[in-house]
Amino acid sequence: MIKQNLHTHSVYCDGKDTIDQMVQTAIQKGFTILGFSGHGPCRYDEVAMKEEDLVSYRKEILAAKEKYKDQIQIYVGIEEDMTQRIPSKDPYDFVIGSKHFIQVKNQVKNVDYSQAMTDEITDLYGGDFLSYAKDYYEDLQKLAQFEEVDIVGHLDLLMKFNEDEHYLSFTDPAYLSYAQACIDVLVQAGKIFEINTGAISRGYRKHPYPHKSLLEYLFQKGGKIILNSDCHDCHMLDCHYAESLKQIRDIGFTSMMVLTPEGFKEAPIDQFGL
Ligand SMILES: [Zn+2]
Ligand SMILES: [Zn+2]
To answer: Which end of the chain is less congested by CB atoms within 10 angstroms, N or C?
Structure first.
């Protein structure tokens, strides 16, 4: 059986656990594949890793990979923000590309930060959340040209504080058309989409990213998917995995992607355990 998470933070950025603690928990929880994806250096993000930390970040993961090689497969990755691409993919087994910021009226605002910040962004759009969504997805689709990126991080992050749909309905037709246009371009580019349970573990959401309506669209379009917990706390390493796997199956997906020493491969859905 396969149990995988490729979206894992540690004390090198805003995670709570050391690399070693995280690996030990992964083994206890029956994971077979664990990839670390610290926040790549980003001028707008003070909790991101610093350029000078990257060598020891990678070294420590490689040491754990060797130490636990008989128990779990470990991979060195990075979560790169769209505002600051990594200079080279060479030191990494995989790259998650994420959009955490939006530029509006010459200001850079954090999409991920808080309800109050989401209000501020909406205000900068004159109260029009749909215009925000349009800009967000138009920018996100540029990830198609980021050849280093394997996985698109938390596709509809802008909806983080919209669990009660007070900004917008998840099935608003105009909203869906922007998101779907973005998905079309990213599927075409062969990107992998993560089902990300991170906001559930932190109490912001009851359902993973992306929303079911987008996941169904992704299925229709033949999009490749992966299940990730965007883990910042080892206790949450498989948070909402069982429920998400059920949802993925119910929608009709018959496979998910796994990282192997030879790169990403497709594996039948029934090989994924809990
Ligand atoms: Zn992220
Ligand atoms: Zn993350």
So the answer is: N
